[in-house]
Amino acid sequence: MSRVLNNTCAVAEDKRLRVEKAASALGYVPNPNARSLLMKSTGGMGMLLPHVSGEFFSEFLTGADNVAKDNDFFLLISASHGKASEWRSSVQSVYRRVDGLIVMAPQVTPKRLNLSQDIPTVFVNTPVPERDRSGVDVIGFDNAGGTRQAVEYLLNLGHRRFCYVAGPEGAFDAAERAKGFREALDSAGIRDGVILAGGYNHEDGALAARKILEMDPRPTAVLAANDYCALGLLTELQGAGVDVPGEVSIIGFDNVPSAAFSAPGLTTLGVPIREIGEKAIERLLHRIRRPDDPVRLSVELPVNLVVRDTTAPVLRQQ
Amino acid sequence: MSRVLNNTCAVAEDKRLRVEKAASALGYVPNPNARSLLMKSTGGMGMLLPHVSGEFFSEFLTGADNVAKDNDFFLLISASHGKASEWRSSVQSVYRRVDGLIVMAPQVTPKRLNLSQDIPTVFVNTPVPERDRSGVDVIGFDNAGGTRQAVEYLLNLGHRRFCYVAGPEGAFDAAERAKGFREALDSAGIRDGVILAGGYNHEDGALAARKILEMDPRPTAVLAANDYCALGLLTELQGAGVDVPGEVSIIGFDNVPSAAFSAPGLTTLGVPIREIGEKAIERLLHRIRRPDDPVRLSVELPVNLVVRDTTAPVLRQQ
DNA sequence: CTGAAAGCGCTTACAG
DNA sequence: CTGAAAGCGCTTACAG
Questions:
Q1: Do both A283 and A134 map to the same domain?
Q2: Which residues contact A56 (CB under 8 A, 6 or more apart)?
Q3: Which helix (H) or strand (E) segment is A165 a member of?
Q4: Which end of chain B has fewer CB atoms at under 10 Å, N or C?
């Protein structure tokens, strides 16, 4: 019976038919647990994410799910919420249930990253320390370079008074983006760039906007740690009667779908989120299928400025 | 060894310690497949969704993941993309891997809904035919009533020329929302309400906006099938120089997080998405833990109008 | 309190 | 081409 259902070796035609008929009549589906126990493979991949809210993750998941489904893999998703304690239990809970792991953990400190080496793992947007890279694939994108690019663009538009609304504390990607901001200003010889506490949600941007409204002189260019933050900022500023981009230019980060549909459209740094989801799964698939391929991936994807309508030249500089 | 790790019966203290020490030294984690094979339970729940993109799903997943994690259940997620063919394979692929199923399938035709009755299932926002309801929990929300409410609100503001931008073809929730629109206009004796083809994404709203711009006379009130559609509509209309809400009022559906941060803020129908995710998992948990409880849930959650700034009274009626 | 055995549902050599 | 057996890693009665 196993032989006909799995098409694993020659079976007499009449028996094959009888088995097939019986199977479909009973609605027989092989128990995947029994199968994995024997075959040492589960047909699943685990995704360990800091959380699952917002368009960044839904895009990432969409890309991942598409490729996984095409290859008949299921996705086991676990949000660690960034806490190191939950992190460990998340890893453990998926351990033998999947054939490989996608890990996105921007908030986990490198030394805590003690995964068992015996399961293929691809890290996405995670700070993987050099000594842990040997057995592992790493996909990142150029966080610092992105912000640097945005600052340079604004400098060319004549901006000189900059403000940066930072991402959440402890997230490595947020830190890199802030670093890019500082570096770019430094090279331009600008010493009074302001960095404000922020976060990755609309509310964080709105809060920062209040502070910006009180600043005197006000910055003419504001960069935000991500798009949601930029969008919250934009709305709050507009609500206070500020003209964007007339008085203030704004640039976000990620190029989330909503960014194209704000009014005005948000200028932002484009990260190919969905493609990253696809690539991560494709890579993991390869690792699972060819466990002895010694090659490891370590890429940093470029980030590209997407110019829309929240940015404009500074005409008169006070 | 099994006895000490599972704390299943009394064991001599010295042996217990020796086992525990060895287990942690080796980093031993029991194989969940072997365990489920025997125990007939997996510690997982499956989520069958039409897709995973956008804030509606990310909110739903966030609610679900929170409760699942708190109860040490893992989530197996599968997006069927609405196609009936993929639907069947999705159901089958999770079949024995999880202890219960959350199913959201607004696009699946009722007759196709042939789930095996032997796994606890809670349906969310899915048209479950009466005869299939016996073994199953159903959580819905008042799609038609929501739109009706919105139309009545606009009528009170003096609007008489209405337009509805519909959701995707074949989705029952979209159909219900459109029905609410028609019903409300009928009761008000308004016969010239326009229904435009649309969808659940920004782009669909933007496309519909083009058509609205060509209409003469133009509607003063536009309802959209969901928030993304409304937001796309809003932006496109604004881009064409239309004053919202000065010339046109807009109402969305869902009250997705972004809706509060458009400019102007989107008036919409509030669906407690995250709470629905939590409730669905809680209910499934109950079903899994008490398999012989004969009670079945069948609720329709209310939808509440959230008034923000895309709606205003009609001052002069042509 | 604790060995040894049976069995969960499958697949895969092993003999015919 | 096809039975019958072994074994994947666990848990749980069953005897002591």
A1: yes
A2: A226, A254, A256, A273
A3: strand A162-165
A4: C
Q: For chain A, what's the residue count?
A: 318
How many Å lie between the alpha carbon of B62 and the closest alpha carbon of chain A?
6
B288-301 mean pLDDT: 93
Taking residues A45-49, what's their average pLDDT?
94
Are A96 and A153 members of one domain? no
Q: For strand A194-196 and strand A162-165, is the pairing parallel, antiparallel, or unpaired?
A: parallel
Look up the pTM and report it: 0.95
pLDDT single digits (tens) B120-164: 999 999 998 887 888 889 999 999 999 999 999 999 999 999 999
Contact B226, B252 (CB under 8 A): yes
Q: In the predicted model, is pLDDT for residue A175 greater than 70? A: yes
Q: CA A8, C1' D16: Å apart? A: 46
- Distance in Å from C5's C1' to A32's CA comes to 26
Please tell me the distance in Å from A3's CA to the nearest CA on chain B: 20
Which nucleotide is nearest to A13 if distance is taken from CA to C1'? D1
The whole-number Å distance from A34's CA to C6's C1' is 17
Q: Whose structure tokens read 């490595």?
A: A172
Query: In this structure, are B180 and B76 located in the same domain?
Result: no
Which residues of chain A make contact with B94, given a CB cutoff of 8 A? 74
Q: Are residues A86 and A151 in the same domain?
A: no
Do residues B236 and B287 both lie within one domain? no
**Alpha carbons B224 and B239: distance in angstroms, whole number:** 18
What residue of A is the nearest CA neighbor of B202?
A261
B95 and A CB contact within 8 Å = yes
Count of domains for chain B: 2
The β-bridge partners of A48 are: A78, A103
What is the domain-level CATH number for residue B259?
Answer: 3.40.50.2300
- The answer to whether B84 contacts chain A (CB < 8 Å) is no
The single-letter DSSP state of residue A266 is P
Closest approach of A291 to chain B, Cα-based (Å): 21
Mean pLDDT of A92-106: 90
Return phi, psi of residue A61, to 5°: -65, -40
Residue A306 near chain B (CB below 8 Å) = no
Both structure tokens of A29: 């589906």
> Does residue A10 sit in the same domain as residue A96?
yes
SS3 B79: strand
Q: Within 7 A of a protein CB, which nucleotides of strand D?
A: 1-3, 7-12
CA A11 to C1' D1, whole Å: 6
| Cα B211 to Cα B206: distance, rounded to the nearest angstrom | 9
User: What's the domain range around A61?
Assistant: 2-141+273-300
Cβ A78–B75 below 8 Å, yes or no?
A: yes
pLDDT computed for residue B93 by the predictor:
80
Using one digit for the tens of pLDDT, what is the confidence trace for B189-216? 999 999 999 999 999 999 999 999 999 9
Same domain as A147, residue A192: yes
Q: In this structure, are A150 and A228 located in the same domain?
A: yes
Strands B304-306 and A121-124: unpaired
Which pLDDT value is given to residue B109? Answer: 65
pLDDT at A75 over 80: yes
At residue B239, the 3 state secondary structure works out as: helix
Answer whether A234 touches B (CB < 8 Å): yes
Which of A65, A238, A260 has the CB atom closest to B79's CB atom? Answer: A65
Please give the average per-residue pLDDT across A244-266, as a whole number: 97
* Measured distance CA(A240)–CA(A247) in Å, rounded: 12
Min Cα separation B42/chain A (Å): 9
